[in-house]
Amino acid sequence: MLRKYYKNIKILYVEDDEIARENGIEYLENYFENIYEASDAIKALQLYEKYKPDIIITDIQMPKLNGLEFVKRIRQKDKKTQIIVITAFCDKDYLLKAIELGLVKYLVKPVNEKEFEEALFLCVNSLEEDKTNIIKLDVDTYFDTFNKNLFIKDEIVKLRAKEILFLELLIKNSNRYVSYEEIENYVWYDSVMTKDALKTLVKNIKTKIPKELILNLTNSGYKIAL
Length: 226
Known about the structure:
Elements: E1 6-14, H1 18-28, E2 32-38, H2 41-51, E3 55-59, H3 67-75, E4 82-87, H4 92-100, E5 105-108, H5 113-129, E6 134-138, E7 141-144, E8 149-152, E9 155-157, H6 161-172, E10 178-179, H7 180-187, H8 195-206, E11 214-217, E12 221-224
């Protein structure tokens, strides 16, 4: 995942709990050289203006100004900075606000090291490749490739495990048709894919997203029309 050492990437870590902040910074120092810390969002805004960090990691529940309002102010003038939100809450309203604000990652406490590392890796990758994990499928439909959430008209639509894998695979290869063999290896990695199983999977997904998004090429495979 992460590789030592990201000397040129600047991190802003915002957390009002002193122990949590110290632990987070200690971990970040394994990979990053330029780390700035703030105990509240007001100070964080000042540090943002001064240092223009590449990645912001912020808690939601903080005194003076909450994390989402802090991010909203950042997003008013900056759409590029990668943002990770860490919170004790996991409900629809927070997730929807996260999507609206173009958050890269939404992590729920307690965050384990693997999740944190993956979020940081994807932030770094997004900076290098100028891409986002929030994929717009159509005017009302978004898929979050990190948090595995499908949003349609401000509602979270539940997906089964194989439906998530299928969408991920098509999105990753949106410039071409994905072969049946590739689908079997990725989605049915631990079992055998039958034609009926694949047809059922595609049929179910088409009831959840605009059906015209999923294209089929006979004897070849499937493609998503992005």
